[in-house]
């Protein structure tokens, strides 16, 4: 039963039938792909030939009348194909126009993104400059505060010295009051 016929299919498994695999059916009927073969086998109700091992390729039992009556050339195009082709051309043109529009939108968005990146870079540099200036001003403020404290302390000491110079009796009384001595 493994004799090959001139057409590449196995010899008839049963009287009046032929056993063939996907590729053989595809070549014999002129199908474009294996999916079309599966659909044909399902629609025709061809049984699957017995397999001894599940790894063996699937083969169908096809009646000889169907096998011999098979057309190797695709069916002639019907009148609806021309209108379908025009409809597909129109859809293709619309899709091409949409693709071009999307490309233009993408380019505009890229330009906007580049401008936003440039602006963000400028803002980052401005922020860094402002932070540096703020640190400088903070240091200067701390220096002024320290100087103010020194001036205030010196002012107290200056007033104390002035009081001691101009009013020695009062100064002694004030110092004595602080130290607890008369």
Description:
The protein has 182 residues and is mainly α. The chain is 68% helix and 5% strand. It is built from 5 helices and 2 strands. The chain has helices at residues 22-29, 34-44, 64-68, 80-166, 168-179, and strands spanning 17-21, 59-63. It has a two-stranded antiparallel ribbon. Helix 1 (22-29) packs across helix 2 and helix 4 (80-166) packs across helix 5. The longest helix is centred in the C-terminal third of the chain and has 87 residues, at 80-166. It is rod-shaped, with a radius of gyration of 51 Å.
Backbone structural class: mainly alpha
Adjacency order of strands in the biggest sheet: 1-2
Contiguous helical run count:
5
Distance between the termini: 140 Å
Mean pLDDT: 79
Helix content: 55-70%
Secondary structure blueprint with pairings:
Blueprint: E1 17-21, H1 22-29, H2 34-44, E2 59-63, H3 64-68, H4 80-166, H5 168-179
Antiparallel strand pairs: 1-2
Helix pairs in contact: 1-2, 4-5
Give me a quick take on this structure.
This protein is mostly helical and 182 residues long.
Q: Key features?
A:
182 residues; single chain; two-stranded antiparallel sheet; 5 helices; disordered N terminus
């Amino acid at each position: 039963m493994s004799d090959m016929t001139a057409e590449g299919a196995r010899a008839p498994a049963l009287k009046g039938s032929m056993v063939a695999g996907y590729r053989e059916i595809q070549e014999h009927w002129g199908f474009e792909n294996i999916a079309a073969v599966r659909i044909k086998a399902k629609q025709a109700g061809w049984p699957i030939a017995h397999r001894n091992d599940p790894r063996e390729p699937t083969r169908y039992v096809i009646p000889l009348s169907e096998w011999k009556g098979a057309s190797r050339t695709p069916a002639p195009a019907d009148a609806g194909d021309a209108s379908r082709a025009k409809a597909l051309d129109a859809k293709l043109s619309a899709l091409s126009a949409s693709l071009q529009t999307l490309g233009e939108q993408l380019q505009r968005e890229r330009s906007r993104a580049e401008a936003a990146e440039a602006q963000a870079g400028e803002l980052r540099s401005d922020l860094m400059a402002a932070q540096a200036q703020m640190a400088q001003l903070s240091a200067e403020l701390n220096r002024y505060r320290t100087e103010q404290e020194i001036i205030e302390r010196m002012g107290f000491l200056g007033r104390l010295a002035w009081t001691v110079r101009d009013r020695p009796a009062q100064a002694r009384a004030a110092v004595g009051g602080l130290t607890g001595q008369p």
